[in-house]
Structures are given as structure tokens and as C-alpha cells.
């Protein structure tokens, strides 16, 4: 019974986080699941990784995305497709209220406090901040191809994982 439910659940939508990968036209997604240990009667986290078809690279490393199983496997590894980017990395939204969050406070509460008590000179203005990706190639190297380094060489490659 439990196995059939788990197999059926894999065919529907899954929520996961994008992680670095070396595959071309594909994105690696980590889906967190809870697995019951029947001896201890406790749940433990188990990560499952799926390769998703993403030729236009609409998600970057760290994004929370919604994925769905393909009707037919594209390759041996690519079994899912990306439906949408739910939460882009770095722009945190509370899933219950839909409000933007900074650290442990809502952004609108921080703005109200700034109106009441005066704004600090060192405060960060979220409205004037540029979108993610403007430092692509300067300080943000998530779009560069990464690979696993198996050997140690004299020259250091910044894109090796």
C-alpha cells in the first residue's frame, strides 16, 4: 500500500531546490522527503535527486521550483520537466501570507518602523535593489558550467565543485 502511494506521488508535481549540475539542457533538483523508520517510529529526511529538462535555463542554483514527471523519459536520467520557478533564490516570500521577508521580519513591517523611528543611513532599500543576475560573470558564477574535480592539478579552476 505505502509503496503504491509513493509511486503514484512521484507522477504528480514535486517541489524541490535547484542544485549545481554538469548536464547540458538539464537541471538537477533536490526533493526532500520524510521516510518512516518502522523500528523507531520516527521520520528521517531523505533527499532524492531528479534531472529535469530545462533547455532555456529558466532556473538557477538555489531556486525553489515545481517539477512534473514527463510522460516518456527523454534519456536514462532526464525524467521530469520544470513547470515553474516558485521562489527565486534570495527573494524570500512567506508561503502563508505571500509577503516578502527579510531575516525574521516582514519587509512592510520594517518600512513602517523606518517611518516611525526614522530610517537608518546604513539600511538596505529593497525597492531600489536590482534583480538577481546583474552580477552574472562578476561575482555570481551560478550560470557557469560546473564539474566535479577528481584530480588535483597545479592550476586552480574556480568552477570546479
TrEMBL record:
Write the record's keywords in alphabetical order, separated by commas: Ribonucleoprotein, Ribosomal protein
Q: Which Pfam families match?
A: Ribosomal_S17
Q: Which InterPro entries match?
A: NA-bd_OB-fold, Ribosomal_uS17, Ribosomal_uS17m_metazoa
Compositional bias, Basic and acidic residues, is annotated for 125-142
Q: Transmembrane ranges?
A: none
Top-level taxonomic group: Eukaryota
**Residue ranges the record marks as coiled coil:** none
Q: Where is this region: Disordered?
A: 125-144
Gene Ontology biological process: mitochondrial translation
Family listed = Belongs to the universal ribosomal protein uS17 family.
Please give the name of this protein. Answer: (African queen) hypothetical protein
Give the source species: Danaus chrysippus (African queen)
Its taxonomic placement starts with: Eukaryota, Metazoa, Ecdysozoa, Arthropoda, Hexapoda
